[in-house]
Structures are given as C-alpha cells and as structure tokens.
Amino acid sequence: MSNPNPNAPARTLLDKIWDNHAVRAETADAPGTLYVDLHLIHEVTTPQAFTELRQRGLTVRCPERVLATLDHSTPTRKPDAQGRHVYATPEAAEQVGTLESNCAEFGIELHGWDSAQRGIVHVIGPELGATQPGMTIVCGDSHTSTHGAFGALAFGIGTTEVGHVLATQCLLQRKPKSFSVQVDGRLRPGVSAKDLALHIIGTIGFNGGTGHALEFRGSAIEALDMEQRMTLCNMSIEAGARAGMIAPDQTTFDYLQGRERAPQGEAWRKAVSQWRTLRSDPGALFDRQVVIDAADVGVTVSYGTHPGMVAGIQSNIPAAADFQEQKALQYMQLQAGQPLLGTKVDVVFIGSCTNSRLSDLRAAAAVLRGRQVAGHVRMLVVPGSVPVQKAAEAEGLHVVFQQAGAQWREPGCSMCIAMNGDKAEPGELVVSTSNRNFEGRQGQGARTMLASPAVAAACAIAGCVADPADYISHREQAA
Amino acid sequence: MNPITLIRSRTMVLPFENVDTDRIIPARFLTTTERKGLGRFAFHDWRFNQDGSANAGFPLNKPEAQGCGILVAGRNFACGSSREHAPWALLDYGIRAVLSSEIADIFRNNALKNGLLALVIGAEEHAFLLGHPGIELAIDLRECSIELPGGSRFSFQMDGFARTCLLQGVDQMGYLLAQRDAIEAFEHSRSAA
Known about the structure:
By secondary structure, chain A is an alpha/beta fold.
C-alpha cells in the first residue's frame, strides 16, 4: 500500500492505534489520557468499581461501550431440578447477583444466564463482533490481550482503572514499548498456535515481554486462522507483555463480516478500508525484536510452575537452571532427565479463554473419537460460550466427549482459575489447555501442565503424557 | 488517598522469584465484593498448610518477620493476573512497600494506585536486601531514596506522575474527571470524521 504521506515517519501498528486514541498526549511529567472503545466486564473485578461510582455519585459515561458477561464464578454444572444454578459458595452467587444489579442500575448490556451469547469474556467479544480492528479494548482481566488478534490494542487493567473507564471512558496510560515477534515459514503439521505460544514464551522468557506490547508478524502468523491468532495473543501476558497484537487482514475481515456488532453495508466497506491501513509501516522501528523459524516449533508442553518452563513433548525434562527451577521441579514431582512422555496424568481440562473455541474442541475430538479416557483420568470439556457449546453439539462433538468418558460442561472459566468449584485435588497432575501453570492455580497443591487441545486429549486416552501423533495422523489433524 | 512521603520499617524477605498473583491471593478468595479484609488471604497457601495450621517454615511466618511493613521480594514479583485484590491483600496484611529488581506491570500500576509503594531497585541493592532480612529502611519518596541502617542511601527511579500522586494524595479519578472537556472534544472530533 502506498504511504499517503511519504514524509511521515514510519509507525508501528501500536503507534497508529495509540495516536488514534490519545485524548491527551503523554509528557515526561504525566501519562497520556487514552480513550477506550470497548470495555468488557465480568463479575470478579468490577463490584468495587461500581461501589466507587455510587459513593461519588457518578454515572457510567458510555454504557453502550461496556459489555458484561458472567464467567469466572459461575458453575459449569447444569442447574438443579428446580432450575437453580448451584454455586460453589454463597459469595460466588452474591458476586454474580451484584454484577446483575450493577448492570441493571447503570444501563449496561449483560450477557447473563438467560443470554444465548453468554460465555467467557474473551470468547464472546469476538463472537459478537464487538472486538474490532484498531480499537482500544480493556477489561479487568489480564487475558484481555486475546483481542489483539484482531489488530486491536487490548490489555488488562485493575479494578481502580475499571472505575476510571466506567466514569470517563478513559485511562491514564504510558505507552508500552514495541516488540516485534516475527515468525517466518510454516508451522509443521500437528503443531498448533498453543505450541507456538509456549515456544515463544520459552524463547523470550516469561518476563521477556514486561513493559512491551508484542506484535506477532511474519508468514507463519499470517497463515493462522482467527481462533489460532486469539490463542497466541491470549498468551502474551504469560510472557509478561500486557498486549499482543496481529495486523488485521482478509482473514480478520472474513471472520467479522456479518457478526451482530460488526458494521453493516456501507459502514462495513468504510471500516474495512480504514482497517487495511492498520499495519506497521515498512521500516517502522521496534524497541525489541526476535525472529523465530516456524520449522523449529514442535509440540510443546510446560513442565514447571511458570509458563516459560516448556519443552518439546518428546524431550526429557530439562535440568534445573537454578534454585527457583529446582523448587518448581520439586513442586511438580518431576525428575530432570526423565522423559515427559509417560508421566502419569490425573485430570485433563479442555477449556479457558485460551483454548475453548470450536476449532479447539474439534482438535480434541479428532483425537478422542472412538477412544476412551483412561480409567483413572477425570476429564472436563468446558466450551467457551453458549454459541460454541451449541455449535459443538450441532456437530456431535459432545457425543464424542461423552462416549469417551469425559464430562461435557456448561460454558465458563472453570478449572483455568478454579474459583467456581471446578478444581483439582492436592498433588493431582492436570494437563490443561489453559494459560497458567502457577502453583495451586487449579486447586491448592494441584500441578498443571499446559498443552494444546490435541495433546490434552491424547493424555486423557493414555492416562499419561502422550503425543497426539500416536493417535492421529498429521494429515487428519491438519484437516 | 492519604499522602505518603516517608515509610520507615523493617524488611521481611521473600526470596523466591516469579511470585505470581495466585500466590499472593489464591483465586478462590476473589469472590468478595469488598476491598477490605483481604489480609487474611495474603500468601494464604504458603502461610497455611492444607489442614489450616501455620506453615512455620514460610519466611513471613517467622517471628522476626512480624510487624515488618516492607517486603523485599525476588525478581519478577506479582506476575500473572490483573486482580487488584493482590495489592489490597498486601496492604491489609500490613505491607506498605514492596521492593524488587523487577515487578510485573499490572500489579505495579494497581499497587501505586492504592498507596502500596511497588518500587523497582537496582540489582546490587536488591541482592543486598535479599541477604539482610529484618533491617530497618527509610523509604523517602520526596528524595527517591532508601536509607539503610548507618545512614548510607541509595536511590530508586519511579514514574514522576505516580510519585506526585502518592506525595500529594492525588485522586486519579478526580484528575480524569477534570479532563471532561478534552474527552468530549475528542469524542466530537471522532464522530465528525
């Protein structure tokens, strides 16, 4: 594309979105004031913000820019015989009720229990077409980086900032530094976006992105579909980066066209022509960059207690580099030098804002079809939203899971954050398609191994860490 | 928020790296709708054994760590989630400052907005403090310096705006609300485009 102003300095995608939203420019003395296009909210990180508004007598400035859902504290079991939702604790029920009443009081659209579009906040934003290129998107949730897959600047904020955005539609922010993560070539058959994300975190370090917004670029990134791009951007925060982004292209536009909140008709054509300008200019300078060869990425899992401790599934557990890694291996009850394959697995979880979309469920079902979950393994499959649940059921995927012996649950965050009662017991090893393997993340004393849906399904069948290649040909997996 | 100029206290040391927000406050305690009273959950699954008894081996449970208001933590402190419950829990537990060589972005923002001094210090000073638990420090926000016992000092860097807000007790919500005209002008210019 020709540059309309050849004298203008080359800008990154981050620069362009930032400049488009600067109500007040940043100075040495003060952060900039950044306008927020879309504010996603859920029950956990908002009650105190609404309390603050009430105490100050403030209103929500732009209720139409706020979208609410229930996901974190919600049960994933079906309601009881009386149709009541069975919460883990009375506090969880109260928290959900608080969001319901706050949304009613302040005029905010809530995808609550009765909505056919309810789901994990980072699944429903894109599904509704609310997530669009060039937007600034925030949410009191660190995995807001997911929405960067659409060429948006999307990042997690705290509850005080949730209050700021509700009241003013703005945030005080300093611009992050830019970090180009270029992935050239083609991912090998059977290698998913989750494997790529874990590989990247292992390469740059799980604090390697601190202070930066990642821009994923290169031919391997362009070849990813939107759900894969969401998985990759979702994991940006696991490298310490608040945001991850991918320039929008035809793949993005094809995904969005016709969705409920996407522009229609003439507005659509106008939007697409503007969205096409949202890419880093040739020659734009990044503060940091790394180049990765897609051919070097294999099927990857985590073996420690942070997402940077990763290894190829066929490899032996790496030696601890320091005291911290030694401590991690001890917690994980793993021995350096032992093969990862064959490690006994107790629980398998397929779900979370990282890997709970239709393509993720298809990948897991492709491995599980006609097979059985090992007798000692408990397996939960939790779709990311009601639309994902319905689409999967229309294809019969739920039957594949149920016949294999897995539990097919209602949508929600579930065992990713383990605050709704879905959790593992102390000492249990969970192979999980979620995003964090911190100590106790999935239940006090529980051990987590992060993996792709195909790997998780293979582990469920084998009852131990297993390579999906043993169950499915790469050609089938790619199909 | 009350202005903060000087914090004088002894240090307690958490020598682990990459202490994540799930360690600071496990997710199962996030179902509250309040900011208050979260100190009892701070580092819960380290402070307490699974049977509810105190874990005597945990550094913060040692007698000498009691009453210390400054936490010296290993590198990359508070990585992970955006939960503001993490600084709320630490403040309610009695911690007024966290010092580390690296602190995760979202936590640092959240902490400073709540009057918890999350300060990044140099690697050398960090190593010294990790090795000397229990010493009394005086953190002077006006001078951006930390005084050690005996009077020697070292400086730290922090965002000038965050520092001014802490020193003057600036209400950031009020600061943003005062920009209403600029926000309206921005909205109009966009809708006209």
